[in-house]
């Protein structure tokens, strides 16, 4: 009997897949590690090249491994599960998951507000606003590319801080006494353009989540508008919904 395979009615590729998936789950092959190459798997399990390739494709579909061209097949990081149940920042979300959050500042400058940005911040189109662009990382893996727009007066104060260390939410609330009370979320699936792909280290056209989030102070006063581009291969979003009572109690 080949190593790890069972006397089973399951196809050989499914048996090999089960063994490798179990080895990934128990930490034999931890996230980021490389699986043995094709020749090693063929020899270990005494199966054909076609069987090994079918196994790898199944593991890819399950999100357990990925092929890095010219390097081999690697175990993927488990997806980050982010709940959309309350207003929180990236650092808070990662800390709650036991991940180490860092940031890389890409750009910060004063720009004229486009019509869409101006609408979200309740300003006239063309009004000068501050735009901050950062790549957000969890355990050194790029997770999202964030564009943050702030009214110029508060934005210029925020820009003076070390934005690779200081979360913008914390600055607004704790340093500038502007507590956030609510936010509006809009989420859609899009494809990564060249700018986003380069920032996140992914291929152009890769699936990503775009979240538009407008956060409000008391009033309500819009104070922070963000476009958050999350890698689809690294993140999933969950929420909990209450059932609305049917009309007439039926």
- Element string (H = helix, E = strand): HHHEEEHEHEEHHEHEEE
Q: Number of helical runs?
A: 8
Q: State the separation between the terminal residues, measured CA to CA.
A: 60 Å
| Overall number of structural domains | 2
Going by helix content, strand content and strand pairing, the class is: alpha+beta
> Helix content range of the residues, please?
25-40%
Characterize the largest beta sheet: strand count, sense, and whether it forms a barrel: 6 strands, antiparallel
Low-pLDDT stretches are none
**Mind telling me which CATH architecture of the largest domain this is?**
3-Layer(aba) Sandwich
The CATH topology of the largest domain is: Chorismate lyase
Tell me the overall shape: elongated
Mean pLDDT, to the nearest integer, reads 90
Task: Find the count of extended strands (DSSP E, 2+ residues).
Answer: 10
> In the CATH hierarchy, what is the superfamily of the largest domain?
Chorismate lyase-like
CATH class of the largest domain: Alpha Beta
**Strand arrangement in the largest pleated sheet:** 4-5-6-9-8-7
Radius of gyration: 23 Å
Strand content: 25-35%
What would you say this structure looks like, in words?
The relative contact order is 0.12. The chain folds into 2 domains: 64 residues, Winged helix-like DNA-binding domain superfamily/Winged helix DNA-binding domain (Arc Repressor Mutant, subunit A, Orthogonal Bundle), CATH 1.10.10; 159 residues, Chorismate lyase. Helix content is 28%, strand content 34%. Helix 1 crosses helix 3 and helix 2 packs across helix 3. It is of the alpha+beta class. The strands form 3 sheets. Strands 4-5-6-9-8-7 form a 6-stranded antiparallel sheet. It has a two-stranded antiparallel ribbon with strand order 1-2. The chain has 8 helices and 10 strands. The mean pLDDT is 90.
